[in-house]
Design goal:
GFO_IDH_MocA-like_dom; 6-stranded parallel beta sheet; Gfo/Idh/MocA_Oxidoreductase; Dihydrodipicolinate Reductase, domain 2; Gfo/Idh/MocA family oxidoreductase; 2 domains; about 400 residues; 9-stranded mixed beta sheet; Rossmann fold; Gfo/Idh/MocA-like_OxRdtase_N
């Protein structure tokens, strides 16, 4: 029988319970669930009734120190991700952090630096959309240069509808002190990761964000951000939680074609037969009538490919879990190294900071201390939670 990674789940809410089901149902063949942990005994009781052979803990340090587990996942509130991850790494226990890596760049940089000092301990992050065949194929097309150098990206992702009743379920939801933000921190981290994973990390961002715009919350429920990639290429990222009809449309426009993604299901790729610069140089014009080079008609300058991919529910998350286990056991390359988590956190922070300051914010020399200072001002205004260190 092949060796399995002894695994512990810290946080037994919806996500932690789902991971337990994936493992116990055989979707993660290289992993064995041996322990669970939550400060709420009601949560661990539910899982214990379903999986009675697991060791139960109420303190994450006790689970990590128990010697029962070789690795953990942190399905806990966002602010706790770095704290728990660093403790586990210090004890030689491998870590799969739930997204986001943290709430503010200062704590995520500390985590990344700490993990880098322990290269024998694996640190990964649950960017399950990187395991989505659709986005893997899109990244491959871009990386292969099939649409040329990127000129513009546009992503409208407003399918995160949340009514006031959703926010009213728990006091910690949509707060600066407990959750660290709104749609950027809770719903959209995967898209913030994907756009950078596929198109590259922006150099700067200018953003308009609305706080409690259409919901009775303190944090952002709508965002429009303009990305600057530093080479003339730009991007637009729009997200919201109050669009009851919702739109999910991604466009990546390059000098040799474009990619259009609708509802994260259907992909249309248009590839020019030459780069736009080459076509442009050979065009003859008569008013607004154009004669394309090489005798091409307008409908002949590009080839079109349309495809969809199947992604069974649970396959993305369980695939990341399996990849994490196989990396530790067999050296398989990681789908999502933990160090990559800084990119999405920094972009979310920069969007907040830009909207607060009313100006463009650099991501290359992002001011971690200024962001944390202004975040703590928001936390103090709420009056519910202590400022962050």
């Amino acid at each position: 029988m092949s060796k399995k990674l002894k695994f512990g789940i810290i946080g037994c809410g919806n996500q932690g319970s789902a991971y337990a089901s994936f493992i116990e149902d055989g979707l993660v063949p290289s992993m064995e669930l041996v322990a669970i942990c939550d400060i709420d005994s009601k949560q661990t009781d539910k899982l214990s009734q379903k999986y009675p052979a697991k060791e139960v803990f109420s303190d994450y340090k006790a689970l990590i120190d128990s010697g029962l587990v070789e690795a953990i996942v942190t399905t806990v509130p966002h602010y706790l991700h770095p704290e728990i991850a660093m403790y586990a790494i210090s004890k030689g226990v491998h870590v799969l952090n739930e997204k986001p890596a943290g709430v503010y760049t200062k704590q995520v940089k500390e985590l990344n630096a700490f993990a880098a000092k322990h290269p024998d301990v694996t640190y990964a992050i649950m960017f399950n959309q990187r395991n989505n065949p659709l986005y893997q194929r899109i990244k491959q097309i871009v990386d292969n240069g099939e649409i040329g150098a990127i000129r513009r990206t546009n992503w409208i992702i407003t399918t995160w509808y949340r009514p006031d009743a959703y926010y009213g379920q728990s006091e910690w939801r949509a707060t600066w002190g407990a959750e660290g933000g709104g749609v950027l921190v809770n719903q959209a981290p995967h898209q913030l990761d994907l756009i950078q994973w596929i198109a590259g990390v922006p150099k700067a961002v200018y953003a308009k964000a609305a706080y409690g715009y259409k919901r009775d919350i303190a944090v952002e429920d709508e965002v429009t951000a303009v990305l600057d990639y530093g080479n003339g290429a730009t991007g637009v990222f729009i997200t919201a939680t109050h669009d009851i009809l919702g739109t999910d449309r991604l466009e990546i426009f390059g000098d040799k074609g474009k990619i259009i993604v609708e509802d994260s299901k259907k992909v249309t790729v248009k590839r020019l037969y030459k780069s736009e610069q080459e076509i442009n140089a050979g065009i003859k014009a008569s008013g607004t009538r154009f004669e394309f080079p090489d005798g091409k008609q307008p409908n002949e300058i590009a080839e079109e490919e349309v495809f969809t991919t199947d992604s069974v529910w649970g396959a993305q998350h369980s695939g990341v879990l399996e990849n994490f286990a196989r990396h530790i056991l067999h050296g398989e390359p990681l789908l999502a190294p933990g160090a990559d988590g800084i990119h999405g956190v920094r972009l979310a922070n920069a969007i907040h900071l830009s909207s607060w300051l009313g100006k463009e914010v650099s991501l290359e020399d992002f001011d971690d201390d200024l962001y944390l200072s202004m975040l703590n001002e928001k936390i103090e205004e709420e009056g519910k939670y202590a400022p962050k260190p």
